[in-house]
Amino acid sequence: MKFLLLENIHVVARDALIAAGHEVSATGASMGSEELVAHLEREQIDVLGIRSRTQLKAEVFETKHALQAVGAFCIGTNQIDLEAASRAGVAVFNAPFSNTRSVAELILAEIVVLSRSLGDRSSELHLGKWRKVATGCNEVRGKTLGIVGYGHIGRQIGVLAEMIGMTVIFHDVLQRLPMGNNRPAASLDVLLSQSDFVTLHVPETPATAGLMGADQFARMKNGARFLNASRGTVVDLVALASAIRSGHVGGAAIDVFPTEPEANSSEGFLSPLQGLPNVILTPHIGGSTSEAQENIGREVSGSLLRYLEDGSTMGSVSFPEVDLQRLPGRHRLVHVHQNVPGVLGEVNGIVSRHRGNILGQVLGTNPQIGYVIIDFDSNAAELIARDLAAVNTTIRVRALG
Ligand code: NAI
Fold first, then answer.
1. pLDDT at 308 (0 to 100)
2. Residues 27-77: tens digit of each pLDDT
3. Pocket test for ligand 1, best of 103, 148, 289, 317 (most atoms within 8 A of CB)
4. Distance, CA 80 to ligand 1 centroid (Å)?
5. Is residue 379 pLDDT above 90, yes or no?
6. Integer Cα distance of 361 and 169 in angstroms
7. Helix axes 100-115, 152-163, angle to 10 degrees
């Protein structure tokens, strides 16, 4: 297959795709819709790889030489019209958890930095001020860390924090298996009242908007520190600034903001937290490491190869997730169809007309499409695929051998 990788995708992805026998062209550039559609048509590209700058509108999924799949070598997929991709039968894969460890390490470092007011000491010394102080500076050993949102990142932090001697409690809306000696708090309020450090790792949802406001900061222990590297909308920054100014909250590390600039710039960013003591502000860099980029390259190229070779859609954001173990002696077809009644009966009828005995079958649906992997014993996969392609509810069909 022909791959086009845009936006400087990590070289591990290109290497993995070439090693699997594919033809790959890679560039650092992004492309506008018109240029991209023309390029996909002209070069007969089968699979496209992008990061966050390339916008994929509906027309990209409607080219004559249809894309098979898209790799979003990033975390979010807001730049992609996923409904159009789904309708057109284009499987889109991303890598939502590849930077988990990077965020966890940043938080761990910041807990120590806040505990010693390192940001302020460093800024002072840059300005020529020598202020050697021990008051208000503490080891983190033996202190309590409260983790709000005990998912991929929250759990990693729970494990790392215990390794440096912290007691870890957590709060999640779902029942989560505690790692190590971490234990659940009875409620968010209980967590806030018991923690020396509170760190947020929840998703951005209507339920988490404004999760931390004046009431919640008031419930925190006097002098406790607060960290947020989840999403900016989760925290009321004006309330946090006021809690820090009063001295009730003893410092904060904030990586995400309600509105963030789209591009790097040397001035103009404003936040109510600027200039406050013991406050570390970082420009959404929690997941920004070389290792995370490499993980993303490996994970997304792996998902694309599994989809092309075995039909697995695990990790897809435009297809229902379907997987079926490959067993020797079986032939495989994958079929994408409009999600209307009766399609599976028609598909199975065609397989049996070609004397195929179905040995394994798994179907998944979303509101637009159905996706089915079918294993059978007949070696007429190409003929079955040809007949399936003629059915009017078929969007895509591939024989995988
Ligand atoms: P995840 O989905 O694995 O975990 C989120 C957890 O929060 C889940 O266990 C969920 O049940 C829980 N949760 C949802 N609503 C809640 C509520 N109201 N109260 C308590 N718990 C709640 O997500 P992951 O990968 O751990 O990411 C967490 C956050 O970190 C996300 O917002 C993500 O966007 C952000 N993130 C930020 C990065 C950065 O560069 N600063 C990089 C990567 C992720």
1. 97
2. 999 999 999 999 999 999 999 999 989 999 999 999 888 899 999 999 889
3. 103
4. 21
5. no
6. 44
7. 50
User: Can you give the pLDDT at residue 262?
Assistant: 80
Sheet holding 2-5, edge to edge: 23-26, 2-5, 47-50, 69-72, 91-93
Sign of the C-alpha dihedral computed for residues 317, 323, 329 and 330 taken in this order: negative
Domains of the chain: 1-99+289-319 (3.40.50.720), 100-281 (3.40.50.720), 320-401 (3.30.70.260)
- List pocket residues of ligand 1, CB cut-off 6 Å: 75, 97, 99-100, 103, 148-154, 171-174, 201-204, 207-208, 211, 229-231, 255-256, 284, 286-287
Q: Among this protein's residues, is 260 annotated catalytic?
A: yes
User: Which residue puts its alpha carbon closest to atom 32 of ligand 1?
Assistant: 203
C-beta of residue 70 within 8 angstroms of C-beta of residue 50: yes
Residue reference for tokens 């909250």? 249
Which of 284, 306, 326, 354 does the annotation list as catalytic? 284
Identity of residue 339: N
Q: Is residue 237 within 8 Å of 264, Cβ to Cβ?
A: no
**pLDDT confidence of residue 64:** 84
Distances in whole angstroms, Cα of residue 342 to Cα of each of 210, 245, 346, 376? 46, 65, 7, 20
Helix, strand, coil in percent for the chain, rounding step 5: 35, 20, 45
Per annotation, catalytic residue among 260, 291, 309, 321: 260
Q: What Cα–Cα distance (Å) separates residue 377 from each residue in 3, 331, 334?
A: 31, 6, 15
CA of 202 to the centre of ligand 1 (A): 3
User: What spacing in Å lies between the alpha carbon of 151 and ligand 1's midpoint?
Assistant: 6
The reported pLDDT for the residue numbered 283 is 96
What pLDDT, on the 0 to 100 scale, is given for residue 66?
Answer: 86
pTM, two decimals, is 0.88
Ligand 1: distance of its center to the CA of 231 in Å?
8
